[in-house]
Amino acid sequence: MDFFERYEVIPLQLTELAGDYQVWALDFFTKPELVPNPYIDITVQLDISIAASIWQEKLAKGNGTLTAWLIWNLMQSLKEFSCFQWRYIDGQWFEVQNPPLFSPIALNRADRFVNLVLENPFKLAWDEFAGAWVTLKQQIQLDGSFKTSDTSAFGFSQFIGNLPHLHFTSLTLHQPASFCQPFFYFGARRCNQEGKLMMPLAAKFHHGSCDPYVFDLLLKNYLQRLQDY
């Protein structure tokens, strides 16, 4: 099974997109002679106080971790906005309907990082995701090693990383050469002077498929989802 079949990749139907702007953006921002750097970096500080309380009261006794809970909810919000699943492959835009989750896991040994790749995250309920996350993370922390072959699915993935010991106010991620997909990084959680639990979220996305307006809609959906469980 190739990646197109595995991740349910279909050509993006430009004639079905709403409005002329999106069609123009998909073309304009993929012309390097006009836009040498088409990526936008945004870092926001999220108040996750309610989400953390819900986790502690309702979910902490089950499988998973608060980090996994935050990642799963972000995946569910990303699913609501198809533009975050658009990929530019060999001069054509596609939609990846079933992207894997790609998350680098830090290790306290020579390899430093191992790639956690979780299949079918859009189709998993929280309990299923939590069990898969814990199992995969334990396996790679115990005997995993960095393999460049893990990156073969990279361009099709939803990349969500976590830097649990680094609290940042701004983080600029690498400019990738892979399919124009977005990237997300959580940072260290800490309480502010008002006692609210804050977490930085850095995002990098291609201006052809996404823009700050859609990113704002994603954040509102994400924060509402965290509070409504």
CATH superfamily: Chloramphenicol acetyltransferase-like domain
Query: How many domains comprise the coordinates?
Result: 1
Let me know the largest β-sheet: 7 strands, mixed
Enumerate how many helices there are, as a single number.
6
CATH level 1 name: Alpha Beta
Helix content: 25-40%
Averaged pLDDT: 89
User: Uncertain runs with pLDDT below 50, 5 residues or more?
Assistant: none
Content of β-strand: 15-25%
Secondary-structure-based class equals alpha+beta
CATH architectural name: 2-Layer Sandwich
Radius of gyration: 18 Å
How many strands in all? 10
CATH topology: Chloramphenicol Acetyltransferase
Shape: globular
